Model the fold of this input.
Amino acid sequence: MNKYDSELVAGILSGHGYRLTRERGDADIILINSCGVRLHAENRALSDIDQMLAWKRRRAGRVVGLLGCLPPLIGEDLFERHPGLDFALGPDSYHRLPDLLNAAAAGGLKSGILIDDHSHETYGDLVPLRETGVRAWVAVSRGCDNSCSYCMVPLARGGVRNRPVDEIIREVETIIAEGYPEVVLLGQNVNAYAADGTGFAGLLRKVAAVPGLKRVRFMTSHPKDLDDDLIEALSEGGAICPDLHLPVQSGSDRILEAMNRGYTRAAYLNLVGKLHDKVPGIALSTDAIVGFPGETEADFNDTLSLFDEVGYASGFVFRFSPRPRTEAAGLKNDVPDEVKTNRLMKLNEALSASRTRQHSGLVGKTVEVLVEGSSPRHPDQVIGRSREGFMVALPSDDLHPGDIAAAEVEGTSGFTLLAEQVKTAVL
Ligand code: SF4
Done:
């Protein structure tokens, strides 16, 4: 979502005559888009601010602003901790940017402005300035109505606001006209989407039916809201890819309850069973937190055994870090750091083993690859993703970004499937 928000900001500013540069030396304004989901991300953004303030001091007239989740989380303290920071804007206040930057250019910006209002903003009127490539992101909603006890997103981004179906479809049509073959529908919990009498499965089918669209994926899916209709939609194929990010967070019922996730281990595994039955070959990925307050070795072993049982294609494992103003921040952070690190390593090993199993099972099979570009390491190869989301590398001198090729998997290397193009295959 943060990457999409950066594209929205670039869209707002390019509409007001600003030009994007990737060269810091050429820039007059630097905007840092921050994430506050984990302490590590927060620390990185705060250290970026200090570096950018040093950059600002080297030439008069430079401006540094902070965007994203940290402004509403940290508040006015930001300006005491980082003197010279020109302004900070929460994720739903980006329409104010041109005015703030005009004021800064005119020398009339009072340092310490913090704007944070997320009552109804969806940015439905904006055209993001998208990066070139084969994949475009489209937000179907903003905010979240859940209250997972460790999560600061509802505090930073507010309650859920769904975009109207027609508006989303128009955006997808524009994206296809611009040449993107794939869209990724985004929301903190897309499964709770509801607008104009349409739920998320209905929206997904409508998007998949837009002429010219080759692939559609989505994230993030909250397990408690994943219904049979969405599983049915995933089984229908067409542009809908058999690829699902389904964060479990923990395999222990006791910890799931403390996290306020709203499902049990058995309910999650039941969903996984239905997905494997209805959508053969589906690739599942997940997020998990290790070291949540009170997590015992037995709780952790429940997560480890769940990972083995599901056999994820990929995933992200994080060490618990208390986030300000969340319920879990009030719990005793009682799992020692070295235990968290050890559990993180074990889950990553389990992920690596299940990815290897999945990759090995694909050797000798044909996958459909949407080409993304040349391999950075091997210029005689192109890389792309299969419908399941696996990265595939194949030798080619006649495939270009956006092409779709059939490829037979011959081997694996780390995160990548190594394949050969099957020129006779009909896709
Ligand atoms: S569903 Fe839970 S983890 Fe996800 S954004 Fe909402 S509160 Fe946070």
About this structure: The mean pLDDT is 93. The longest helix spans residues 337-362. The chain has three domains: 2-115, 135-361, 363-421.
